[in-house]
Structures are given as C-alpha cells and as structure tokens.
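Chain A, query sequence.
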Amino acid sequence: MRSSFAGREGEGIAHIVAVHGGCAYEQSAFHLRHFGGNKVIYADAFDGISPHDAAFWRSFLRFSEGSFRSLLAPFSMRTAYSRIRSRHWGRHFIDMLAQDRKPLVTTHIIPACAAEEFGYPHDIYIFVPHADIDQSWVPPRPSSSRIRYLVPTRKAVQRLRAYGVLERNIFLTGYPLSSEVFSRPSDIFIDLRRRFSLLDSQGVFAHWSSPFLSGALGDDFSEPVSYRATSVHIAFAVHDVFTDCKVGERLLESLAQDIRKGRVIFTLFLGSDVRVSQFFRSVLSRLHLADMVPVGGVMLFADEDSSNYFSLLHQQMRLVDVLITAPSELSYYVGFGVPVLLTPPRDSRAHAHRAWVYEVGAGMDMQGAHLAHEWLWDLLASGMLARMAFMGYMHTTFSPSEAIARILQGKYSHQFQPHLFA
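Chain A, predicted structure.
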C-alpha cells in the first residue's frame, strides 16, 4: 500500500514514519498516528519512490525480518548504512519530509539514519516497539548521533546505554495504546468493572486485595460484585501461520461446547493472510461452529490493509476479557486491564516480551490448548486473571501518549520518568 505526503502543511505535530517489514513497526505507528494528523507515511512505499529504492527495501526487509533475522540482521544493517552513504538510499524520502519541518518519529531505524545522514532539519526520534532490542537499532557511531529514542521498557533503556547511546537521547515513555476507543475517561473503569465481574467469579481477588482496589480504583471495586455477565470473551491472535493456526484449532476444539452454550465468546485476530482466514473457516465448519459466527459466538477479524486491521483489533480489544497470544507487541494491551496468556516464544524478541509480562505480573504461560475447557474455569475461580488484569492496568496509569507529546513539544524532563514497572 502506497502512502501519500498529501495533507495540509503543519497538520499534526510530527511526521509518523513506518515500514511494511513487520507487525511491530506498523502496529506501533498506528498507535502514534494521532501525532501525525492520523496519517502514517511508509518509507518503503510512498508516492514518488523509485523502483530501485523500493526493490532494495523489499530485499532488506526480507533478510532483516525473515526466519534468520538474528543471524542476518547485522549484515543487512551494515549493507543498509553503506547504501545510505554511497547510494543516497532514502534521500528523496527525507527531502520530501523536510518540506514540512516538524519532528520525525519512526518505528524503524533506517529512516532515522537516513534523516541524520541527509541533515533532516528537525528532531529525529525512533520509537522502539520491543521490550528489549539488539544492536541493529543503534547507528554505527551512537555517541555522536543526534537520534533520540522513545522506549517502552527499562530493559530497552539499559540496552541502549550499553550500546553507547547518550543518556540525554533516551526517553522512557511506555507503550502508547491509542485512547480513541474511549469516548470518556471513565469508560475504562466501566470496562474494568465488567471484566472483574468475570475474571474474579468467586470474589477471591476482591477479598484478598480490597484495600489496594479501593485505593487505586475506588471503593466500588472492593465491593462484592452484584451482577455476573453470562459469557467470558476470549481472543486469540495469530502471528505465525504454521504454529499459531494449530494452537487456535486446538483451543476451538476444546472450547467448542462452551461456545455453543454461550459461556464463551471466541474472537480470532487473523491478520492479513488470506490463508489463515480460510483455515479457520474450515475449522469452524468441521466443529459445527460456523453457525455461531452470525450470532456473535465466534468472531473473525482480518483485513489485507494493515491500518484497517489494527483499527478493528484495537476497537475489539476493549471488549476482550482474556487475550491469548504469542509474546509480542500485543502484550502491551495489558494496559487496558486485559490479562494475557502466552503461547511459547519463538525468538529473542518474544522471549523479551514474555519476560516483561512476567515482570509486570500481567500474564502467564498458557497451559495446553487442548485442555482449555478445564484450566479456563480454574483460573476464573481462583481470581488469578483478575489479579493480572489489575497489575496490567496499574502499570500504565500514567499516559505514555502524554509523555511522548511533551517530548515532541520540548517540555519533557529526564527527571520525570514515572514508569516504575516499565
């Protein structure tokens, strides 16, 4: 999908730049897009990009984000830096951005390096979407670079320091989940109240933590729940076509009876791959659950347009009670008060996200998918899911978006970094 530079000059307070190389870059840009007038500009697919530059982007992203990313990334990054200097890769893109002078915020390192190399006439920021990062996120001479980093976790801060990035160029912000789905600030408390009534079905967590709930969320949250919703809403997100599809199939097999009885609403976040949607429609047909789709017992969300998909996912997450996902950027939805059950991590980034979730206390490893009809109800009765929901929400009571806005406007102090658990 091509992105355009069209728009009123001065619209938004920053240029938000992403690439199509991975869900992390695009999802993070989606949550930052309001800083750019609700527009994301893609460095690898913008109006006016040369065929040669577009071809090199495709080649670079295939190697840096493919199956052998951890092995090939250092080599591909060195090639990219060399091409920026020797072949002026990305210069046309930076020159077009420079026509409207305002901060540049990118979710990928290459546009930032190109902006620095070609003298972009304003501040340059990288928003790091990962819980931990490797050295490919740092330019060849970090101590003399003017690139600034917006990072979601303390681990990422420590890593950047170790790589030689100057302290004044590192800002701990948290992950800025867009608040557009909440028409009023009180809406999130309404969601939490409803979710707690499900996740603490026996009142175990409310009884044990009454003083904490009262102090943090108000007296209403420490009182016995006077109503019970009839269905618990489970969402499963597909990241990897081969492994996640089998996990999702086993979950549906295990929870099929609960779905038919209305005890469980099951949402599938399927991404943009048509094959995934076809696979799960076939599974639903085999399990005789296809008739549950029209009545809302099973919901499928997929869209080939990544922006549309993230918008659908974001809106639906407000209704979700438990998220089952591989450790990834979706883990940050614990900030909505949604506990996460994690499938096994497959790479270093996933391991870092898993460690962050455990550090926050907002999730745990999922048990066997084929036994979901047993462990789900055990977790609900124990109050563990309610505790994880509470910890996830409390982790983000300070707004990351507010911190980023202050940084972009030059009003942020390094003395004020309130994410105690980031």
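Residues 12 and 38 are 8 Å apart (CA to CA). The chain has two domains: 15-176+400-408, 187-395.
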